[in-house]
Each structure stands twice: as C-alpha cells, then as structure tokens.
Write a structure and sequence with these properties.
The chain is an alpha+beta fold. Helices cover 40% and strands 21% of the residues. It is elongated.
Length: 426
Amino acid sequence: MLDYKFIVENKSAVSGNIADRFMKADVETVVNLYGKRTELTTNLQALQQKRNTNAAAMKGKLSQEERNVLIEEGKKLKDEIAAAEAELSVMETELLKEARKIPNMAHPDAPIGKEEKDNLEVKRSGVIPNFKFEPSDHVKLGTDLDIIDFDAGTKVSGTKFYYLKNEGVFLELGLVRYALDILQKKGFTPFITPDIAREEILEGIGFNPRGEESNIYTIEGDESRSCLVGTAEITLGGYYSNTILPREKLPLRMAGLSHCFRREAGAAGQFSKGLYRVHQFTKVEMFVFCLPEDSGRLHEELRLIEEEIFEGLNIPFRVVDTCTGDLGAPAYRKWDLEAWMPGRNNGEWGEVTSTSNCTDYQARRLNVRFKDTDGKNKFVHMLNGTAVAVSRALIAILENFQQADGSVRIPRALVPYCGFDTIRRK
C-alpha cells in the first residue's frame, strides 16, 4: 500500500502508474477521503482538548453551580467525542479499502505494456537443443516413462491434478534439495512453511482471497477465514508481520519449501496443459526483508541465484524485464526467467521462475518495520523470488533432455540427489 501523503502529493503520477498497469483504482476518491479524514481528526483533537480543559477546571475550587455546569459540559463532550471517533473509524476503514486498490509504483525502467511481447528480453543462457528426431512434450514423456499419471490425478482429485511416481518422485525431491543446498550456502535460512494462511496475511501480501478472478482456494466454514497458500511468499512474508526488526539483522534471507495451491481460474489453452498450470505443486521460494537502500541490489542477487540454479541444470533460458501490465499490484519491478520448452508448439519459452522487488508496499500492509539509526521506526523493503517451482522445472528437464529412444537424461547436478542418470521406459 502506498503512503497516503505520497498519493495526495503525487496524484498525477499515481494515476499514470495505474493506467500503465491497466488496473482500476480511483485516486481522486482516496484524495478526497484523506482530506475528510484529516478534517475529522482535527475536529476530534479539538474536542479532546476541550475535554482536557474541562477536566483541569474541575480540579479547582468551584461552587456547586459551577461544578454542575462543568459536569454537564463534560457529558456533552464525552458524547461528541464518541460520535467523532465512530465517524473517524468509518472514514479510516473506507480510506484503507480504497487505498489498497492502488498498486505499487513501477520502476521507471519497467517496459510499459500488458502483452507478453511487451516484456523486454535482457539475457539468454544455454544452448537450445537441436534434436535429430521429433521431440515429444512432457505429457507424453511422463506417461510413457511411467513417472507422471494425469489420468489417475483427474479421477481422484479432478482436472489439473497429477501423481508423480517411480523416478518422478526422486526427481522432485532432488530438485528441492538441489535448490535448498544452493540457498543455504548463500545465507538463506531454510523453512518448511504452513500450507494455510489467514486472509489478513494474504491481503497484506497483496493477494485477493475472494472474487471471481481470485486464484486462491478459501477454506469455507473456517471462522478464522483462512486460505490455502498459492506460494510460500505469503507465509514467509507474514512471518514478521507486526514486528519491528533490529536494523543490524537486516537483510534477512529466508528459503521456504511449501505446497502451492492455485485455482487457475480462467487458465486455458494448449500452453496450460500437463504440468504447466496445475492446482497443486511444490515450490522453493526465496524471501528477503531488507533496508530500503539495499532492495535494488538484493533484487539483482535473487535474479542471479535463479540464473545459477538453471545454469547448473544446463537448461537454456532467457531473462525478461516484465512489463507494467504483468507486474501485479505489489511489485515495483519483476524479472521472469523463461526456460526453453521444446514441447510447446515446436519450441517456445515458458516461465519457470520470477523475482519481484515489492519495496515497502507489503511492509506497510503487514506492518513490518525496523528501528533506524535516528531512532525512528521505518518500513522495510520486501522481495521474493522462485528458486524452483518443481512442476515447471520438470517440464524443462523432460523436454530438453529427452533422447531418441524415448529415455530422458538427468542433469548432472541432480544425479547425486536422484541416484540415477537416466529415466528409461519400463
């Protein structure tokens, strides 16, 4: 959430940012509500001052008549203050509701647009395979190798669910351990996070738990209003909610392993088939709490870690600077890492990781601060990044390392974790 005063003082820039992101939010309403809140606050403070003056007068030597007048005035002020507090509370709630619709400001270098073509490619790595045979997609490979069962997943749980079996199990576990080992060496504290979070935490991170377009599974009948998490960004980000962090402990680097649950509302098309868009998958997420002046540098660090992970797997990829229309409300800037996927329309790029610098947008909503050298409490900056989303990493591995005989060679970096170097037909 942006600072109220920032919105008022930069109304034109905030409105332009909303337009660039192709979002809907009413800046004028926020400005007007903020003005009314200021007016109500001033009025309440004046009434409280009168109450204090009245209370002080009661301590002097007074006649009974004078005391009775002050008592009546005190009762009247008490009622007026209660009414003013109630009106201010309603105004605060309405202001917060409208202000939360306004997205974070975008980095000035973020490309403007809303289509995939508007993303700016900034780097490529690896060699795209030149198959001497007609490559298969991961759905056929996984089925033929008996390591993924989509039919059973649909029968038992519904569409977009799947079973991993045989070598597929060890491939997932190997990917998780491979990523966690890299992150631990880089100073990340490993976590296994809950798969459920309260709605207030999701809203603080910037997710909309309800509504037709929501990607979140809500738990009906739960009095605490909880949801299944779509990413460990939610549970890691909420870990220090309503906390003042010591400045000397920043940055805090966290690595969270969790299941991720997504409704994938509206997702369709050939590029959504198989493992690319599923309702449940495993992911290792990076999260950082840091000083404001360090967030740009640390965002680069997260991107380089993602690159290191996929370079270590010898998977060809490219990095794109994400356009404003695809940033999501909390992100100031976002890098996507897209792997080459031969099974997509004879070969196309598909997103496998992303990393976002959300500046203080989430910290304001979750009230995560640090005590600065001047003694004042200030909001931290919060960043997130995917180390490995297993389902999409599996697509890239199966499709890029397939062999003419239908087998799949395992990336060398994963062999020590998996215990085998090739998956063959049974």
